[in-house]
Amino acid sequence: MLKPTLLAAGLAALLALPTAAQNTNSGTDKFAQLETMLPTPNSYRTASGAPGTDYWQQRADYNIRVKLDDTRQAISGDEDITYTNLSPDVLTYLWVQLDQNVMDKNSITTATEVGQIQPRMPFQALDYLQKSEFDGGFKIAEVKMKGGKALPYVINHTMMRVDLPTPLRPKQAVTFSIKWSYNINDQTKISQRSGYEFFPEDKNYLYEIAQFYPRMAVYSDNQGWQHKQFLGNGEFALPFGDYRVSITAPADHVVGATGTLQNASEVLSSAQRQRLDQAKNSNKPVLIVSPLEAERAELTRAKDTKTWTFAAKNVRDFAWASSRKFIWDAMGVKQNGVPVMCMSFYPKEGNPLWGKYSTEVIAHTIKTYSKFTIPYAYPVAISVHGPVGGMEYPMLSFNGGRPEKDGTYSADRKYGMISVIIHEVGHNFFPMIVNSDERQWTWMDEGLNTFVQYLAEQEWERNYPSRRGEPANIVAYMQSDKSLQTPIMTNSESVLQFGNNAYGKPATGLNILRETIMGRELFDYAFKEYATRWAYKHPTPADFFRTMEDASGVDLDWFWRGWFYSVDKTDIAIDGVKWYTVDSKNPEIENARKREMINKAPQSISQQRNLQDIKKTLVDDKPELKDFYNQYDPLATTEADKQRYQQMVKGLSPEQQQRLNSGLHFYEVSLKNKGGLTMPVIVQMTYEDGKQEMMNIPAEIWRKNNAEVTKVFITEKPVVSFVLDPLQQTADTDLSNNSWPQKAAPSRFELFEYQQRAQPNPMQQSALQQQEKKPTGTSTGGTN
């Protein structure tokens, strides 16, 4: 037990003053402003983080005609692109993205991949290694002007430069066309963001199609053309525009796509159109194509085709799905009075999970994200179940999560499916509306989206088992070897531990900002302001950082510097505690206190043994050796002591007399920032009577010394323990040094017996137990 040290009354105030050591910063000042690291504000992007008065962005409008070959699993199409130059620059050429070339036989993605051959490898791994044998790249048949004149072009892997016959000046537009084709990949063998799944039981295909057409690259004020090669991780940077897409597929297929269906009377039956109208005002999903209808379609093989035409306004991309296996359900929700059709397309293999949850999850996501960002203004939001585990496009997403063949599923499968639908539908906001550059900064869409996904999950179900968002969930990553980490502010293709870095760490950082650093009110206002400012525009990291500070009035440069630009970790430790009490100068009080301390002090081992071994001392044997001091009590209070105290008190003011007799306790707590990451200091004090108090000290406590500080706590009651970050709000990576007195941080290890066969999920186990409980020997036949 720590013993209190007496403190002269005048010294108490001095403890609150910083010492020379506390004013010393070693190395880089973690509170230095980010001005030298962020781009200089200008008339396009302001210092506040808002678009400037001269902000501009390009526009690309598409008219696309595409045909699905269900026999050869191939795509062919042609498109007219109208590109409008709204920049102040003169353009002599345009850059077009050919992302499908990631599956070209000569793909630089395959050529630059690294890995090792393992002694035991599944067939799927070998399929992936041999994917270079698949010819899946674009076959460009022609590029020409609207009037028919051929345009020269150069293909550089996943980018194509189209040279214009005359320069495209500001405020001018040009229309040109491209004709192309490619082979669709088997998604179960060559995992990409698009592909098909074959169902051998009924010999049908399910197609999820994206990146299927040559797309315009972004030309922006902050970097010119974004024509970095698509290597696989860095997704897509795309301009906004209007789309009209006609999809020709087998007549017995159901097609879902970005935008609204323009020719429902040509492709849907009257019953299906009636159900679709009914769904608009329904508060639960309505089946447009029922399971029975889908199973009947699985048996057909139409030789003729239908063309489904969709239109979408002010979107950055377009994707679609097609299969005769699709069940289709829908329900309507409203955002600011605007009706939104939430729809799901899924094969029977997705039930019962998909019929029960998918469309409800879409509606919940639209409502929750709209609350935290901006109202969803697109007319539809679609979730498609197929071979792609999770991928997003405007108004449409591809999502995994399939139950077992017997219809059972584990809790992980259920919540994994709900989470991926929330996540991919949520991408409508980041980056489909708040249109960041995914090719450069994955975290700006994945990280922000994962954060709002966490908020939506918690509003779906109390104590939802969110995988990412809670600070404790990122600790293992931040504890890992720094050589295996990269700062969040790393280009998408160079990120290590992609999921932790691009999804988990930024999402957790935003949660820490919201709950611990800024508070919900300030954070939510600033985050909504960012979404409002940059809706349907192209924000950069600097725009996000500056807006969050501008709208909240909170200086966060230290947080961006540590959490986003470094791989430092949170590890704040209690290095020591000193306990002081004020000397009241009252001899009766102080002498009694000293006597109590002496009486409570434990005897040394020598003293204890001497009581047993030494039966009588010499002085005990010869009392004549005793003198005055054998009877003297130094802690006895004399009249002279009392008079001196009274005289001293008379010279003090009433306020000084009160302080002298306050009985306050002073605790000098030494703190060390061992992890290097600056964070608030959250302290929980437990008093002698068992009551607790929590204090949240802002991160600025470290501003004059980033490595170690001393904080004085003044309490009316004795403190028996100090604990840092008891609710794990800051992702502290070492809890063993967070307590005084020190406590061992619990950890666990697991014993298991290796099992080669997968165990039944809980639903299957329950069914087996119910079967075992059934009585045996009962007859199931009728009477004779």
Task: Describe the structure in your own words.
27% of the residues lie in helices and 25% in strands. The termini are far apart. It has 784 residues and is an alpha+beta fold. It has 4 domains: 56-239, Immunoglobulin-like, CATH 2.60.40; 240-432, Zincin-like (2-Layer Sandwich), CATH 3.30.2010; 436-567, Neutral Protease Domain 2 (Neutral Protease, domain 2); 583-601 and 610-661, no CATH class. It is built from 20 helices and 31 strands. A 7-stranded mixed β-sheet has the order 5-8-3-2-14-18-16. Strands 17-20-21-22-24-23 form a 6-stranded mixed β-sheet, with helices on both faces. The protein has a 4-stranded mixed β-sheet with strand order 1-25-26-29, with no helix packed on it. The longest helix has 20 residues, at 353-372. Strand 2 (59-69) and strand 3 form a beta hairpin. Keywords: Signal. One of its GO terms (biological process) is peptide catabolic process.
The number of distinct helices, counting runs of at least 4 residues, comes to 20
Number of strands: 31
User: Given this structure, which CATH class of the largest domain is correct?
Assistant: Alpha Beta
Average pLDDT rating: 91
GO cellular component, one term: membrane
GO molecular function, one term: peptide binding
Region (Disordered): 755-784
Pfam family, one: Peptidase_M1
Topology of this protein?
Layout: E1 5-7, H1 11-14, E2 59-69, E3 74-84, E4 91-97, H2 108-112, H3 123-129, E5 139-145, E6 153-156, E7 159-168, E8 173-183, E9 195-199, E10 204-209, E11 215-216, E12 219-220, E13 224-225, E14 241-250, E15 254-257, E16 260-261, H4 264-267, H5 270-279, E17 286-289, H6 291-298, E18 305-315, E19 320-323, E20 327-335, E21 338-346, H7 353-372, E22 380-385, E23 390-393, E24 396-399, H8 411-426, H9 443-460, H10 475-479, H11 498-517, H12 520-534, H13 541-552, H14 557-564, E25 572-582, H15 587-600, H16 605-613, H17 618-621, H18 639-650, H19 654-660, E26 665-673, E27 681-687, E28 692-697, E29 708-715, E30 719-724, E31 739-740, H20 762-773
Parallel strand pairs: 1-25, 2-14, 21-22, 22-24
Antiparallel strand pairs: 2-3, 3-8, 4-7, 4-11, 5-8, 6-7, 9-10, 10-19, 12-13, 14-18, 15-19, 16-18, 17-20, 20-21, 23-24, 25-26, 26-29, 27-28, 27-30, 30-31
